[in-house]
Amino acid sequence: MLCPPLSGLDACDMWPFICLLFLIPGSLSTCPAVVTAPKELVAAVGSCLYISCRYNLCKAGPDAQISDLRWIHKPKYNEKMKDFMGQSVTHLRGTPGANEGNCSLTLPHIRGDNAGVYGLRLVAEPGRRTFKTLRWIHYVTVNVTDTPPAPQLWPDPAPLTEGRRTTLGCWVPPACPNENPTLVWEGPAAKTPRVDVYPQLPPDNVATPPVIGTALAFEPSWYHDGTHLNCILRGSDGQTITQTFRKLEVNFAPRDVWVEVTPPSPVREGQDVTLRCQDSAKPPSNSYTWSLEGRILPHYTAQVLLQPTKATDGGAYSCRATNIVGTHQSPPTTLEVYYAPRDVWVEVTPPSPVHEGREVTLRCRDSAKPPSNSYTWSLEGRILPHYTAQVLLQPTKATDGGAYSCQATNGLGTAKSLPVTLEVYYPPQTATLETLTPLPALVDSHITLRCALGPAHPAPVIQWLRNDRWEVNTPGPTLSFSADPARAGTYRCIGQNPAGSARSPPLSVIVWYPPKAVQVLQSPGGPVVAGRGPVRLRCQVGAAEPPKFKVSWFKNGEELPDPAPNLLLPGPEAADAATYVCQARNEVGATRSPPVTLDVHFGPQGVELVPEPGQRVQEATDVILRCRADARPPPMAFEWFWDERPLGRTPKGLWVLQAVGTQASGRYRCRVTNDVATADSSDVIVTVYYSTSTILRKTFLGLGVGLGILLVLGTLGCFLRRRWRQRQVAADEEPVVEPSGTFFLRNKKPRTPASPRPPRGPDDTNAISYSSLLSLPGSGSVPRLRGDTVVYTVLKRNDGAAKAEGPDYENVQPGPSSRERDRDGDRDGALVYAALALSSPGTPRGHAGDLGDAVEYTTLRH
């Protein structure tokens, strides 16, 4: 740790003790002075000296006890005795149990040998071991004089400031207990209004308590400067013991400020004049400001020299003096400078120009000292018989106008004014309006009017009126404008100046123009429904000059016959829906109205369904059905039908069939609806045919299926043939009568049944197309069959009967004999098989007719 060096000691060694000192209650850092008493006193011979004294034992700690408390005159320290020795004045006793007390000393009847140093010796024993014995001595120097000491004043002498409240104090040492002296203030300052006198001890840096003090608070004024302020010490009997005084110095702002003019006013122009600013101030004024008639002048000293004096230097002068305290301004002092007339001018009342007949006053104004006493007047250089400063013109005539001047004279000279013009105004007497172009005028032609006025002053301003209203921005004697219906009317011109005006007689200006604001009015308005008329179109014309006109009608640009103001459409019909224009024509020209479109609403007409790309399309093609119709308002819904079956509803006339197949073929129709009616289109047949790839695919598939069927039939034929052979063998052992039967389609002619025989072979079955086989009762006896026997009903055409009577069957055409057909390979007349019957085991053998109920049916297709 770094320790600051201490004189004679090691700072680091002392540090713990210093810390301990600040931690101990009542240590040096917190205790007041041990003894409080003055260090020096003055006493007069024979007076009583009181030494005020107080002690405090804080440094000895609590419960400290005074062991020695005494005053010693001229004390000296005895090294041997380790104590102060001298003439003992008095022994005091401390206040038991108190850490502080009174140690004052009173010396009555002071003698000269009482002067010297007095010491208060104080020794106190601590009440605790942590404190040391307190040993102290306080010195007081006593001076003895032949006269009592004068009171002391505070603060130190310094200039006072006027108006600033100031406090002065006076003090003396304390008196003996049996005395009661007082301090009294005397002097002009003590008698100032708002003065305050009250007890006041001086600050510690002025006197050490206890003392007797008083204070005086007052506001210094300029008249206190140089006066004396006395502080008097009086005894109990009121007699003055001693006194002191101070001469007051008071700084105050300038006062009694005034302007001194040398030589005195008045003075003649050109003389030298000195102006001095006189004032009284402390400290003296160090700045001055001058003004003339309130106007600040560029002068900043106490003296101003006007050399030479000019007429403009005359007026009221003021000066302002300033010092550190304040500022003050003098009252104005007038300097009169005499000079000959100047700045002569003519004043006209009322100001020029004036109207003829009014009263006018002319005054000759000038600047002169002394004022001018003689005047002369002239008009346009001609001397007038007027010799005063004022001329009255009553009443004013036109001839009174002109340039006036006056001349002013005083005892120092003469001066003449510049000419001043008096204007006398009078209005124009007449106004005439005439046209410079023929009337009436055609539209867009040029029209010029001229206004002629009589004499007037000043020159009149010409304004134009149309229909008794002002035409804006049209000044001048002529008025030119393009012929326009808006400019037609009654015109006048007015000539006007400040004195009055004159108005011309009216003139009518007529402008011819073709009809205007032509328009077509429809009744009733808005859209109309066909057949619910009539509708009337009226041609309305706003204005035309001349007003007579002829009306023509145009439909879609073509003129209609029979011109008339009104056009009647009795239907109306759909064909009446068009754009109509009416035209109005007069002598000047023709004007057409804006086109008006007649909106005729009607139901759908000419409804047509158009398939795209056509009515015959190849499968897998997108077919677009477009429904077209003429309708007003446009259709709002389209319904679609296929073979009278609804397909759907669309807001637009378009229906798309995507990737159609052959099943999409059929009749298509659309239905159109608007706000008026509904209509259907004609049916359109759309045929969807196979594509080449589909045809090939189906052909090959059909061939494959056909070959498969032939294969199956061939296999079945072989099987049946084998079975037939087996039964044929059985028939050889026991005669089997072939059952007789015919097609249900047979000729009604009676025929001899053919001799039964079994089929020739499996080839005989290939000639059958369709058949139903039925066993007919009564066709002959049938041998009884044994077991489960299959009975074939075989039909065979009888060749002989065929030749004689025709074919046996309705579906078999006549032809060559079966043998010839067999040879040729044509087996259409032979039945391979018709019906198969399985005889139950319990069926008794009998006639062939008994087997009729056992035949079911079989339909065979070749």
Folded structure, characterized:
The protein has 862 residues and is mainly β. It is built from four helices and 70 strands. The strands form 19 sheets. Strands 59, 61, 62, 64, 65 and 66 form a six-stranded mixed beta sheet that branches. Strands 2-10-9-5-6 form a five-stranded mixed beta sheet, with no helix packed on it. A hairpin with a 2-residue loop joins β34 (402-410) and β35. The radius of gyration is 79 Å and the shape is flat.
What attributes characterize this protein structure?
8% helix; mainly beta; flat; 6-stranded mixed β-sheet
Q: What is this structure's SSE topology?
A:
Elements: H1 11-23, E1 35-36, E2 40-44, E3 49-51, E4 54-56, E5 65-78, E6 83-91, E7 100-102, E8 105-107, E9 116-125, E10 134-145, E11 152-154, E12 160-161, E13 166-172, E14 182-186, E15 196-199, E16 212-218, E17 228-234, E18 240-247, E19 250-262, E20 267-268, E21 273-282, E22 287-292, E23 295-297, E24 303-306, E25 315-322, E26 327-329, E27 333-335, E28 337-349, E29 354-355, E30 360-369, E31 374-379, E32 382-384, E33 390-393, E34 402-410, E35 413-416, E36 420-422, E37 424-425, E38 431-435, E39 441-442, E40 446-453, E41 461-466, E42 469-470, E43 478-482, E44 489-497, E45 500-503, E46 507-509, E47 511-516, E48 519-523, E49 528-529, E50 535-540, E51 543-545, E52 550-555, E53 558-559, E54 566-569, E55 579-585, E56 590-592, E57 596-597, E58 600-612, E59 616-618, E60 623-632, E61 637-642, E62 645-650, E63 654-657, E64 666-673, E65 678-680, E66 684-689, H2 692-733, E67 741-742, E68 774-775, E69 790-792, H3 799-805, H4 818-824, E70 836-838
Parallel strand pairs: 2-10, 12-19, 20-28, 29-37, 39-47, 49-58, 59-66
Antiparallel strand pairs: 1-4, 3-8, 4-7, 5-6, 5-9, 9-10, 11-13, 13-16, 14-17, 15-16, 17-18, 19-21, 21-24, 22-23, 22-25, 25-26, 25-27, 28-30, 30-33, 31-32, 31-34, 34-35, 34-36, 38-40, 40-43, 41-42, 41-44, 44-45, 44-46, 47-51, 48-50, 50-54, 52-53, 52-55, 55-56, 55-57, 58-60, 60-63, 61-62, 61-64, ...
